[in-house]
Design brief:
- There is one protein chain.
- The strands form 2 sheets. The chain has a 4-stranded antiparallel sheet, with no helix packed on it.
- It has a domain of 99 residues: Immunoglobulins (Immunoglobulin-like), CATH 2.60.40.10.
- The chain has 1 helix and 8 strands, in the order αββββββββ.
- With 150 residues, it is mainly β.
């Protein structure tokens, strides 16, 4: 009798557990996408610029997803490039921008710099590139020093 009762309780436990798993506690996967960043362009060539020029370019982007896009950080590959970016969340379908300014003072020759954009969207990281050639500034002629005669 004890054996039959124990078997019955175990069977009821298994049946109850199987019904509990198929009840309201089901998990469904959503096919909805989150935020998605799409840049108009990801690179810019300044061509030849004169030394001392502050070369600036703006990279525009759109949130093509269906949830707000947030740029978590924007960093340049060196201190000679200063990025600025849209800090508030970008709604689906809206636009934002990343502006990069390259300081060419004291940096003659070719340059290629990368701006790393970290965000909450698909892929989580984008890379922007700026490049160009800095033409060395011509030295200013020094005026001759004239000393007064005694």
């Amino acid at each position: 009798m004890k054996r039959t009762l124990l078997t019955l309780l175990v069977a009821v436990g298994f049946v109850g557990a199987s019904f509990a798993q198929t009840g309201k506690n089901t998990v469904t996967l959503s096919t909805a996408e989150g935020s998605k960043i799409k840049f108009e362009k990801t690179s810019h060539d300044f061509g030849t610029i004169k030394e001392g020029t502050q070369a600036t370019v703006t990279f525009k982007f759109t949130n093509e997803g269906n949830s707000p896009l947030v740029l978590n950080s924007v960093q340049a590959s060196c201190g000679c490039t200063t990025p600025k970016w849209t800090k508030e969340p970008i709604a689906p379908g809206s636009e934002g921008e990343v502006t990069a300014t390259y300081n060419s003072k004291g940096r003659p020759g070719n340059f290629t710099k990368t701006i790393t954009v970290k965000h909450n969207g698909e892929g989580a990281v984008e890379y922007l590139t700026i490049r160009g050639f800095v033409e060395k500034a011509q030295p200013k002629p020094q005026s001759p020093v004239v000393s007064p005669e005694k």
